[in-house]
Design brief:
This is DUF3388 domain-containing protein. Helix content is 32%, strand content 27%. The protein is α/β, with parallel strands linked by helices. It has 2 domains: 82 residues, ACT domain (Alpha-Beta Plaits, 2-Layer Sandwich); 158 residues, Rossmann fold. The protein has a 7-stranded mixed sheet with strand order 5-6-13-7-12-11-8. It has a 4-stranded antiparallel sheet with strand order 2-3-1-4, sandwiched between helices. The chain has a two-stranded antiparallel sheet with strand order 9-10. The longest helix has 13 residues.
């Protein structure tokens, strides 16, 4: 029988020597294997486990509920945020009102790249928006995640190296294994109908598409923010406001150069 993964997170109510050993022994008696274990947000301990049947998990749950030293926080099939929490020792911040929006700061680029790489590995169509101020690391994170996921990235519109607005793809570039990257500002302000026709073609592919500045992209296209599966916000500091005033002051939308900005 194929073993299935589960996620257990518990909070310690009464810390005492040997507590983790007791829980590990309990899992062993129930023939449940520990895959990974780590502290989570300095408050809880998280474990990824493998079990052959759901009955094993139900028995584990019933026994843990009788223990007065711990409080079960979660016992479920692991979600992506659970896996990230065990790997990195903390949960990714998620918007309380918009559940598809995830927040990072620049010092968490490693966590962000790992998270995006996992999104890239998912099969089928995924539309990901990335918000952030200039030089915060948006494009670099998108590309680094592509490398981690072993995917080829294609800039459909970009200012990474030079102004790029593509109007066609080569035959072998129409691949669901590619990551298609758009700069919402470039597509909105510099592209013609041929580019937007290509955008519509790419959107039909069962592949991952990443859009920097999704708000500008949505305002100037047939797509809306509701079409995005994930929105990632990257800031220098937690309280930084993401605005486009800096873009306007540096004449990004004019025909001259882009004022040194790297979006």
């Amino acid at each position: 029988m194929v073993k299935k993964e589960w996620y257990l997170e518990y909070r310690i109510k009464k810390n005492r020597p040997g507590l983790l050993g007791d829980i590990s022994s309990l899992l062993g008696m129930l023939s449940i294997n520990i895959v990974t274990i780590n502290g989570v947000d300095d408050k809880s301990r998280g474990l990824l486990m493998r079990a052959e049947s759901e009955d094993q998990i139900k028995r584990l749950d019933s026994i843990l509920m009788t223990m007065d030293t711990i409080e079960i926080v979660k016992l479920r099939e692991p979600k992506l945020r659970d896996r990230m929490a065990v790997r990195h020792g903390r949960y990714i911040e998620r918007d309380a009102d918009d559940r598809k929006t995830f927040r990072f700061i620049r010092s968490e680029l490693g966590l962000l790249v790992d998270f995006m790489a996992e999104l890239y590995k998912m099969e089928g169509h995924r539309l990901i928006g990335v918000r952030g101020m200039p030089r915060v690391g948006k494009t670099e994170s998108i590309v680094a995640a592509s490398v981690c996921a072993n995917k080829k990235w294609l800039f459909m519109s970009s200012t990474m190296i030079k102004q790029t607005v593509r109007e066609q793809l080569l035959r072998d570039e129409y691949s669901s294994n590619n990551i298609f990257i758009f700069d919402g500002v470039m597509s909105a302000k510099r592209a013609g109908e041929k580019h937007w026709q290509l955008v519509r073609e790419v959107m039909q592919l069962p592949a991952v598409k990443v859009v920097e500045h999704p708000d500008v992209f949505a305002e100037n296209s047939d797509y809306s923010l509701d079409d995005f599966d994930y929105i990632i916000e990257l800031r220098h500091e937690p309280d930084e406001e993401i605005t486009y005033e800096a873009v306007e002051k540096n004449n990004l939308f004019q025909d001259s150069n882009f004022g040194g900005f790297n979006f």
